[in-house]
Write a structure and sequence with these properties.
This protein is α+β, with helices and mostly antiparallel strands. It has eight helices and 19 strands. A seven-stranded mixed sheet has the order 2-3-6-10-9-8-7, with no helix packed on it. The protein starts with a strand and ends with a helix.
Length: 369
């Protein structure tokens, strides 16, 4: 556990925080005028390992070898030459800062950080962080890596949870949720049920891995919700014809996968970032990562069940509240997360996968993304 302090004067800038994995949906821009919640859970922080923020360079200005050295194997519009290691925390965990008024412009419904750091250390005035709470962006505070230092909290160390302990918790992320947007009746907020933005981002990353591991062959996934979110994309993006490969869910609480299956959709440990790996299997296994909460719902779906009534209801009477409505639209993956993941996989240099990446705009028109 750590607190972050100002690099200029040493003043504390955060509550005590525990490190977790950077969420897949961290850089997601969702819809238009949508009110997204806070990105990070209270009491946690995550680190962006890649450079972020200005200055920026266009792809045409970058040598392919330099891009490959940075782990990018296909064209992108821009690359950041900013400092790596930005730290993201929940806005409620920031301490001892004040807004910089002249850095709070360029927003739609809130702060978007376009003007650079907009929070300064209250003690010495050093710009230390950027608060983001604009519409369609996840609410967060980003600590500037050169302006803060990490200080350990004495006596607060704890080992990461084991897979068995995570399985016992059984925390899952529902696939659909109420979405709130601006501009409804009387210009107020309005709500509707939709596929979860977190699911669209998580499956966008997983779809890129499935394509990379397919070897240019069709891939099938288990039926039910897993097929609903993945199979249409796989059938659209992968070449038809060769015998299909199978990808299956594998992880804690599930039976061991068959020995001849090598594409496994597995959970990512939320604290360490490690993919779950089956025991006694060699390196031929190709993991397709999903955030634990999304994977858990796919592996152990929660049907809508009657719940025992309490309070003034008689014993034995069951409540029959309606379940959450299913979205009317087909599932769509997050195109930006898909693209960001695919260009960072070495397999994208293969001809067929490179051509698939070039068709992304066409696939978006088909409402796949």
């Amino acid at each position: 556990m750590f607190v972050f302090v100002c690099a200029g004067c040493g003043a504390e800038l955060s509550a005590p925080l525990t490190r977790v994995v950077l969420p897949v949906h961290t850089h997601q821009k969702y819809g238009n005028g949508i009110q997204l919640p806070v990105l990070m859970e209270a009491g946690t922080f995550a680190v962006e390992p890649e450079p972020s923020g200005p200055p920026w360079r266009r792809w045409e200005e970058i040598d392919p070898d330099e891009a490959a050295a940075r782990g990018i194997y296909a064209p992108v519009h821009f690359l950041s030459d900013g400092a790596p290691g930005a730290v993201v925390i929940a806005p409620g965990d920031i301490r001892g800062t004040v807004l910089i008024p002249e850095k709070c412009g360029g927003y739609c419904c809130g702060l978007d950080g376009a003007d650079g750091p907009n929070l300064a250390c209250e003690t010495c005035g050093l710009p230390v962080a950027t608060r983001i709470d604009d519409c369609s962006l996840w609410q967060a505070v980003w600590l500037a890596p050169a302006a803060v230092r990490r200080r350990a909290v004495d006596g607060a160390d704890a080992a990461p949870l084991s897979w068995a302990e995570l399985a016992a918790e059984g925390r899952s992320t529902p696939p659909f949720e109420p979405i709130t947007g601006w501009g409804g009746p009387q210009l107020g907020s309005h709500h509707w049920w939709s596929w979860s933005p977190q699911w669209e981002a998580a499956t966008g990353r997983a779809l890129a891995h499935l394509m990379a591991e397919s070897g240019g062959r069709p891939v099938t996934v288990p039926g039910g919700l897993t097929a609903e979110v993945f199979q249409r994309g796989l059938d659209t993006l992968l070449p038809a014809g060769p015998p299909a490969r199978r990808a299956v869910l594998a992880g804690p609480g599930l039976p061991a996968p068959e020995a001849d299956l090598d594409i496994l959709i597995v959970p990512v440990h939320p604290q360490t970032g490690e993919n779950w790996a089956p025991p006694n299997r060699d390196a031929s296994v190709h993991p397709v990562p999903l955030p634990l909460g999304v994977w858990w719902w796919l592996a152990f779906p929660k049907p809508h069940l009657h719940a025992p009534a309490s309070g003034v209801m008689p014993d034995g009477v069951l409540r029959d509240d309606p379940g959450a409505p299913h979205p009317r639209s087909l599932f769509r993956h997050d195109a930006a997360v898909f693209h960001r993941t695919l260009v960072r996989l070495p397999a994208v240099r293969s001809q067929w996968l490179h051509e698939s990446l070039e068709k992304l705009t066409q696939d978006m028109r088909a409402r796949l993304f």
